[in-house]
């Protein structure tokens, strides 16, 4: 996993965890321990897969305007 993929995975996991936590706080009685980290990880994995697909697509050169060097 590249640095960019790691960042996308971590950001997606955190966003999904926050979404689940908000839902639990509003509708689940505030029990954060009930959040399933595995489901958050699955969504993060999916985000990385989609990033890889986008970077291998025809318009990949337009996705990341900042390059090394």
Report on the structure:
This protein has 69 residues and is mostly helical. The protein has one domain. Helices cover 64% and strands 0% of the residues. α1 runs antiparallel to α2. The longest helix is centred in the N-terminal third of the chain and has 25 residues. It is elongated. The model has no long low-confidence stretch (mean pLDDT 87).
Blueprint (SSEs and pairs):
Layout: H1 3-27, H2 37-55
Helix pairs in contact: 1-2
Q: Tell me how many strands there are.
A: 0
Measured as a percent range, the helix fraction is: 55-70%
> Mind summarizing the main beta sheet?
none
Whole-angstrom Rg:
16 Å
Which spans have pLDDT < 50 for at least 5 consecutive residues? none
- Can you tell me the overall shape? elongated
Strand content: under 5%
Count of individual helical segments:
2
Amino- and carboxy-terminal Cα gap:
21 Å
* Mean pLDDT across residues: 87
Oligomeric status: single chain
- Secondary-structure element string: HH
- Judged by helices, strands and strand pairing, the structural class is mainly alpha
- Overall tally of structural domains: 1
Summarize the structure.
The chain is built from two helices and no strands. By secondary structure, it is an all-alpha fold. The longest helix is centred in the first third of the chain and has 25 residues.
Keywords:
single chain, 69 residues, mainly alpha, 64% helix
